[in-house]
Amino acid sequence: MTRVLLPLDQPEAWPAPLVSLLGGLHELFLNWQIAPWKVSPQDYDRAILAVGDALRPYSITGWHCTRITDAEIAQIVRSGMQLPNGTTLRRRIDALVASGQLPSDIGDRLAAANQADETNRAGRLWFCFFPPHRAGEHGIGRFFRHWGGEALYNSHEGNPVTSPVLRAIGTPCVIEADVPVASLVPGAGLAMKAVRIYLISRGYETDETMEYEDRGVQSIAADCVRRVSRYPERDFMELTGCATWRRPPV
């Protein structure tokens, strides 16, 4: 999937049509921040929707933190990232059982107890659109310590039988991808973040974080996957900053 890459944290490098649009709406957006009584909600909504539409043709670089096997890494490099759900989790578990990496009885327990089909997880791929090390150990450390993703380890990380098994499978990885904006959950979140980044670059002062994370609802094609960095490779260490963590990823 071909998309022009938008460097989210470098507004000076944004494409001219986007900058022109934001320039024309500058006063409206600034007033919304500092003098909201000057702007009607209807005008703000129309403006933010226009920015959202302007962002859709672009991609933004995101990072997905996880723990996966060598076979899963190869699959992602070859075929991209598929949307997770209970069926795909069961398929992953069955593959581990078939390869001898997971006892069948443990596989059955994992398949029976997970959150993979919950509405806030099924069909969603989460990315942070800022270097993951900014989130610190508290923000990303858990993603690396158990195989299977949050939808699985949430149900098992405190279990004395299944938790050690999940900790022994796979390798901590950071998947870096250029995520099409059009593949994200519909909403104004990215547009609002882009507006604030633009205003800050024009002198507006705020303590609000500029870090952005979101979930995709479409698979990520293989040509959008930039790299898969594994622990303890240099790229992984730099992306996560895990050398200074209280507990290492493994």
Question: Could you describe the 3D structure shown?
Answer:
By secondary structure, the chain is an alpha+beta fold. It has two domains: 4-59 and 182-213, no CATH class; 62-178 and 223-244, no CATH class. Helix content is 42%, strand content 15%. The protein is built from eleven helices and six strands. The chain has helices at residues 16-24, 26-34, 41-55, 70-79, 86-98, 104-112, 136-145, 150-153, 162-167, 189-201, 234-240; strands at 4-5, 58-68, 125-128, 171-180, 213-216, 225-230. The strands form two sheets. Strands 1-2-4-6 form a four-stranded mixed beta sheet. Helix 1 runs antiparallel to helix 3, helix 3 (41-55) crosses helix 10 and helix 5 (86-98) runs antiparallel to helix 6 (104-112). The longest helix has 15 residues, at 41-55. The mean pLDDT is 96.
Provide mean pLDDT, rounded.
96
Low-confidence stretches: none
The tally of domains stands at 2
For the biggest β-sheet, the strand order reads 1-2-4-6
Based on secondary structure, the structural category is alpha+beta
**Helical amount:** 40-55%
Oligomer: single chain
Shape, per Cα inertia axes: elongated
Total count of strands: 6
SSE topology sketch:
Blueprint: E1 4-5, H1 16-24, H2 26-34, H3 41-55, E2 58-68, H4 70-79, H5 86-98, H6 104-112, E3 125-128, H7 136-145, H8 150-153, H9 162-167, E4 171-180, H10 189-201, E5 213-216, E6 225-230, H11 234-240
Briefly, what is this?
The chain is of the alpha+beta class. It contains eleven helices and six strands.
